[in-house]
Amino acid sequence: MRLSTLLASAFVILLPISSAGAAAPETVAALFQAKTVAERDTALATLEAAAPSDPASAYAAGAGEFFTALEILAGGLHRHGFESPQSFMLPLMRLPVPDNPNPQPLTYEEFRAILVAFRDRLQKSAATLGSVPAGADIGMEIDLTRVGIDLNEDDTIAPDESAAAIMASLSRGGGAPDGTAPALTFRFDRADGYWLQGYAEFLMAQADFWLAHDFRSMFDGSFHMLFPRAKLPLQDTLVPPDGGMSGSILSSEWRIADFISLIHLVNWPVVEPERRQAARSHLLEMIRLSREDWKAIRAETDNEREWLPGPQQKGANPLTGLEVGEEQVQAWLAALTMAEDLLEGRTLLPHFRIADKGINMKRFFDEPKPFDLVLSITGPAIAPYLEGGKILTGGEFDQIQRQFGGAGFLTFALWFN
Questions:
Q1: Domain map (residue ranges) of the chain
Q2: Looking at the predicted structure, is the pLDDT value of residue 117 above 80?
């Protein structure tokens, strides 16, 4: 299974639902099999109203809210003529948004508003999923070719906008979905709710980190690479007359140049420090939820179309082609502890230029200073966060990586969350 497909699964499908409890099956079906946005939103409102007293409705509503958060992001990108860079370095910018022949102009303030709406919807999803009791009886099989999001804001959910079609597009390396993806049916259960909630926290951390800073200079100086017809400040000067945007970053000389500009312009003053602090809290909550997820997975006694199987649930997963063993689970739990220790400042992150000190990542988030990507790599920008103490070694991480075998740590990490 290619890494790009796993990335797609991590950021696109995320759609468990439930048939247990009082949630009406027809309402759940309307939520995740709707062919129009209006039909979907009506079902979601019904489930949200029932959520406080019904765990199954809360589970379905929380999943639907996550689903619509992705739609908010995709719709905002489409509205302004986004063209994906198809780069693993910009994961949230890999959504296969259809071409928009008549994009609206985009300002820095409007782009921030898209991120705020996306982030706030994720927060609602996480809160709703968090209200589901640990012991709730959740479970339903669903075909991912029948659920989707409105990518182009035409108020319909077409076959080429299904979760499976979007994943297939990303696994091919980009381009608009074509609706020909093979059927993928999974049975989502209580453990998958922790998994989904954890991904909401992960994406909120990314959004809050961006929103904590003023990135206007980067937007003005390089975002015509992503929105070539949205009347950004340098469009007339730097975008080719034909707007030649198809393909990956590396397939276009002018896109390579703009990507270099983007990296250079990641020198962001802090404007909302509380958001940078919140980013760390989201990551810590993601770690907690991943532990809860694996606790629930390992307690399962069935093996029914598992989205994320435990070691006791034998057989290769139809999405990833991988089988999970006890060695991988133990290594993942060790990786969670390692990440938590870094975020809490108990362990320091090493820097290649400094032998006797490391970066305190807790202070990096909680005592925010301007974020300069290049100077963080070369050293000057991380100097305020250096201190003595226990420093993470390459050997510790290599030992964890070896336990994941040929598929590699990152492949499993995108799947495991």
A1: 3-208, 218-268, 291-301+323-416
A2: yes
